[in-house]
């Protein structure tokens, strides 16, 4: 099953197919239960990016979980154990902002160095808007995507796809189509890697 879900301007791209799954339009669509959203058909989505590992996920009651692979540190063996319980594990991946706490970040990086890094997000210290159409940035994302597929994640949750608005508002008229193309290329690459 391949999931694509738009959750408050974020696309969930998974590895085995491409179909809309849930579109959350208003708060009445689900009942919030902490970090677990229970949808109207009792389908449970867990969204937790910090402080959760294999032990917690094995005990938790959910169908799909979105986790930060750097924080959760799940191994292929952990993922297989969770999948044997019928759980889908989706890896978080920001494609519209670079994060200075990720392993791809270099010590000498700063505003406009490399050229794809733009302004820091005033709401998220250490997160920087990126020119997501830049080949160097896309290669960083593709490399991480390949790692996540190889590790055995069921999918990838793409965050900050709305960053195209930042560039559109600054006069780059092709920003939206650039993001659409980037998302499709990520989906294509993930599906191809899964087939191989």
N-end to C-end Cα span: 17 Å
Q: Which structural class is indicated by helix and strand composition?
A: alpha/beta
User: Strand order across the biggest sheet?
Assistant: 3-1-2-12-8-7-6-5-4
Number of helices: 6
Task: Outline the low-pLDDT stretches.
Answer: 1-34
Strand element count? 12
Rounded mean pLDDT is: 81
Percent of residues in helices comes to: 25-40%
| Beta-strand percent range | 25-35%
Inertia-based shape: globular
Rg, Cα atoms, Å? 17 Å
Task: Please give the largest β-sheet.
Answer: 9 strands, mixed
Q: In sequence order, what are the helices and strands, one letter per element? A: EEEEEEHEHHEEEEHEHH
What does this structure look like?
This protein is of the alpha/beta class. 32% of the residues lie in helices and 26% in strands. The protein contains six helices and twelve strands. The strands form two sheets. A nine-stranded mixed sheet has the order 3-1-2-12-8-7-6-5-4. Strands 9-11-10 form a three-stranded antiparallel sheet, with no helix packed on it. Strand 4 and strand 5 form a beta hairpin. Helix 4 runs parallel beside helix 6. It is globular and about 50 Å long. The protein starts with a strand and ends with a helix.
Summary of the model, kept short:
The protein is an alpha/beta fold and 196 residues long. It has helices at 54-59, 69-72, 76-84, 135-151, 164-168, 175-195; strands spanning 4-6, 11-14, 20-23, 30-33, 36-39, 44-48, 64-67, 88-94, 97-99, 117-120, 127-130, 155-159.
What key phrases describe this protein's structure?
9-stranded mixed sheet, 196 residues, 6 helices, 12 strands, 3-stranded antiparallel sheet
């Amino acid at each position: 099953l391949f999931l694509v879900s738009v959750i408050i301007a974020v696309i969930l791209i998974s590895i085995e197919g491409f179909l809309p799954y849930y579109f959350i339009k208003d708060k009445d669509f689900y009942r919030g239960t902490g970090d677990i959203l229970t949808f109207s058909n009792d389908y449970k989505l867990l969204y937790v990016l910090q402080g959760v590992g294999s032990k917690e996920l094995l005990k938790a009651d959910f169908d799909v979980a979105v986790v930060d692979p750097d924080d959760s540190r799940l191994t292929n063996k952990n993922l297989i154990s969770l999948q044997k319980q019928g759980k889908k594990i989706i890896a978080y991946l920001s494609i519209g902002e670079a994060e200075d706490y990720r392993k791809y970040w270099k010590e000498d990086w700063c505003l406009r160095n490399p050229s794809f890094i733009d302004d820091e997000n005033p709401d998220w210290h250490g997160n920087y808007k990126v020119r997501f159409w830049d080949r160097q940035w896309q290669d960083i994302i593709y490399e991480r995507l390949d790692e996540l597929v190889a590790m055995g994640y069921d999918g990838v949750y793409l965050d900050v796809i709305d960053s195209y608005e930042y560039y559109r508002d600054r006069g780059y008229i092709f920003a939206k189509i650039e993001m659409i193309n980037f998302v499709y290329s990520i989906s294509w690459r993930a599906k191809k890697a899964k087939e191989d």
